[in-house]
Amino acid sequence: MYAPTYYRTRYPAAWTKSGRATVTVRVGGTYEVYLCIGHLRVPLRTDEAWALLTALGAAMPAEYGAAPAWTDEPVAREVAA
Asked: How many helices (H) and strands (E) does the chain have?
């Protein structure tokens, strides 16, 4: 097993004190892919993560149009030591 890598992005969230919330994806570790959205934790196999990415990639533009400007911000990448 190799050290996990974390990918984090912040998004607008009016219900938090800071006005921002975080989505984290961990690759490696106990699960192949581990998705964290707020307090929700979802362990995924690689195929499930790809399926989620594919479904969201089709659904979001079809239902909501172009992505908001904040999605252009870089995603933070951190390798655990």
From this structure: 1, 5
